[in-house]
Design goal:
Elements lengths: L2 H7 L10 H19 L2 H5 L3 E10 L4 E10 L3 E8 L3 E8 L2 E6 L3 E5 L1 H12 L11 E12 L2 E10 L4 E6 L6 E9 L5 E14 L2 E11 L2 E12 L12 H10 L4
Antiparallel strand pairs: 1-2, 1-13, 2-3, 3-4, 4-5, 5-6, 7-8, 8-9, 9-10, 10-11, 11-12, 12-13
Length: 255
């Protein structure tokens, strides 16, 4: 764990004195309380799609812009960040194909761990919807802190072996923080710290409308000003742009 991550957790985190079985029972109970706080499993299951619009800020570079997100179960999403003077960055998933377009790095079809990250994002609705099914184990690490706030501290392990730490407000039972590793542009893993706040109820489900993140010495914030649940989303919205289609066409052997 990086120094930043240790600071986020806080030295007040208490190790769970219970055995592994009890720690997992407590962990799943805390996660189920989170699901209930968001609106309950039934309400979450009724969210088949959503669209999001909002703003994006990268203060260390003095940059700001707009964001747009379209998501449809089980595995279609498209996320767009448009920053004037910098360009448009996009990431998408459809038909099992994960891709990204960056103003400087260009277009890429994502493979390996980078693709797995996008699949995970789709499983949990781009972090807006809980999905207990994506985890093989959920373990309580006891009562601790997240950036100075009291929190239930969980360690969650996905079915492909990735470990994530999440923090929940003990009063509201809502997610307030997450620490995980993600592939970085240089090829090494980077520790990503996420903070969820400003929950708002829409169609019976509570969404975190402000997400701030820190990784590799940079901070950025996404603020969702508009969320529409179960809209009609044209299938074309999830189609990759021309640069990505060209890469996909090049991978098809000539007949």
């Amino acid at each position: 764990m990086t120094a930043a991550a240790m600071t986020a957790v806080g030295w007040g985190s208490a190790a769970n004195a219970a055995g592994p079985g009890e720690a997992q029972r407590e962990g799943r109970a805390i996660y189920h309380a989170y699901i209930d706080a968001v609106g309950g499993a039934g309400a979450i299951a009724r969210v088949g799609s959503f669209t999001v619009e909002g703003t994006y800020e990268l203060p260390s570079f003095g940059l700001s812009g707009t964001i747009a997100l379209a998501y449809e179960r089980p595995d279609r999403l498209r996320f767009t960040v448009d920053i004037p003077g910098f360009g448009v960055a996009e990431q998408g998933l459809a038909g099992g194909v994960a891709w990204r377009v960056h103003p400087q790095a260009g277009a890429a079809v994502m493979e390996g761990r980078a693709r797995a990250v996008v699949l995970k994002q789709a499983a949990r609705g781009f972090s807006l919807l809980p999905d207990i099914g994506m985890y093989a184990t959920i373990e309580s690490l006891g009562e601790g802190e997240f950036e100075g706030a009291p929190a239930h501290h969980l360690r969650l392990t996905t079915h492909d072996g990735q470990t994530i730490e999440e923090f929940f407000d003990p009063d509201t039972h809502l997610l307030i923080g997450r620490i995980e590793s993600q592939p970085a542009p240089g090829g090494e893993d980077a520790t990503l710290i996420g903070r969820a706040s400003a929950y708002r109820e829409i169609e019976g489900v509570r969404f975190a409308t402000v997400w701030s993140h820190s990784a590799q010495g940079q901070d950025w914030t996404a603020t969702y000003t508009s969320i529409e649940v179960n809209p009609e989303i044209p299938p074309t919205r999830f189609e990759p742009p021309a640069q990505v289609r060209a890469l996909l066409d090049a991978e098809v052997p000539a007949r």
